[in-house]
Structures are given as C-alpha cells and as structure tokens.
C-alpha cells in the first residue's frame, strides 16, 4: 500500500508545484512597479519611476497598467501581447516619439482605455491602432497633419473630452498649423487629396526635368555633329576637283 501511495503523493506534489510556479509567473511584479489587487483586479502602478522602456516582466493577469510620467520613448511591437486581460493603459506624460505598427497586438479585444496624451508623437502608422475599440486620448502631441493621420483618426474612438486638444502642430498645408485636427477635417479639408495633388505635381516636375535634359542632349548632339560636318565639308572643298586635275594633266601633255 505504501509503495502505491508514494507515486500518487509524488504526482500530487509535482502538480501542486507546477500550479504554484504558474501562479507565481502570473502574479510576479516588476521590481520597478507596485502591484496590488483592487476590487478583484490586478493593478500595476509604474508611474514616475524614471522608466525608459516598458517593463518586460509584467503580470499576465494585469487589468490596469499605469506607466505615466516616465521617460519612455518608444512602444515596440508586441509590447503587451501577454496581457490578455488588460483593460486600461496609461502612457501619458512620457517622451514617446514612435509607435510601431504592432504595438498593441494582443490587447485589441480587451483594451477599453488608452491614454497617449502629452507625448512627442508626430505620426503613427495606420496599422498601429487597427481593431482597437478603446477610448483613446491623443491630446497634446506635436501632430503632423497629413493623409496618414486623417486615415488613423477616421478609425479611432477618440476621448470626447480631449478631442479638441489634438492639434495640428505642423501640416502639409501650413495654414492649418495650430488648429484642432477635428475642426480642420470637419471643415471639409481632405489631406489625402492634397497628398495626391502634391505627388502629381512632383511627378510632372520630374518628367519636365527629364524632358529638358533630353532636349538639351539632342541640341548638343546636333550642334556637335554640325561642326564635324562643316569641318569635313571644308576639307572636301580644299581638295582639287577632277576638272582641275584634267586641265593640269592636259597642260603637262602639251608641254611634253
């Protein structure tokens, strides 16, 4: 009986150890953050910790992640892909300049609130926010208003309280710099049409430049060959003609 019971006890102990290890990996907290349970939700508080990048060892059961007031400059691909329960993400008041196109892959279905306000973002790839249903704050960033930004905003659910704080810091048409993006778009401006016109003008200028170069080469070629032809003609004219050779031959024959 004891011999039979021992393997069972060993198996139970092994299973319990695996469960404990898994639990530890799920609830482990980064040393730079403070983790707590609030109303049954795992809240990870990493605010004002002088972080320069997003921690890689975040608990998998994180529901609220607070990363505001750090020095994060970049949101890389798959930054939150293990956080399948993430509902609220605060990245405000950082130094974020770039957002990779796959930055929010893995949390598009769960995320409800995303705060990217007060950063240094000028543009984002339109794929970055694909399929996100979260309410998003993009206020107080130095946005460059052009076609891509217009396409991005068309798909987003912007926070209505901060939507007028999404300002064109620069624009493909300088007259719209300093104005709220939504106000500009609501006036009927289409940055994508302007982009196409700009492209067409650039193509026309390029083609005109090539055409001018071809014409200049043809003129140079013709003139160069005309000069060679003129020299050749002068050379031929300098040669004695057949009639002159015949007269000279007759004169020699008479003398003889």
From TrEMBL:
Which protein is depicted? Leucine-rich repeat-containing protein 3
Q: Which residues form the LRRNT domain?
A: 28-64
The protein's matches in Pfam families, at most eight in alphabetical order, are given as: LRR_1, LRR_8, LRRNT
Instruction: Give a Gene Ontology cellular component term annotated to this protein.
Output: plasma membrane
What's the protein's topology in the membrane? Single-pass membrane protein
Q: Which InterPro entries match?
A: Leu-rich_rpt, Leu-rich_rpt_typical-subtyp, LRR_dom_sf, LRR_TM_domain-containing, LRRNT
Where are the annotated coiled coils located? none
The entry's family comment says: Belongs to the LRRC3 family.
Leader sequence range is 1-28
Q: What is its main location?
A: membrane
Source organism (scientific name): Xiphophorus maculatus
User: Does Transmembrane helix appear among the keywords?
Assistant: yes
Record key words, sorted: Leucine-rich repeat, Membrane, Repeat, Signal, Transmembrane, Transmembrane helix
Cellular location of this protein? Membrane
Q: Where are the transmembrane segments?
A: 201-222
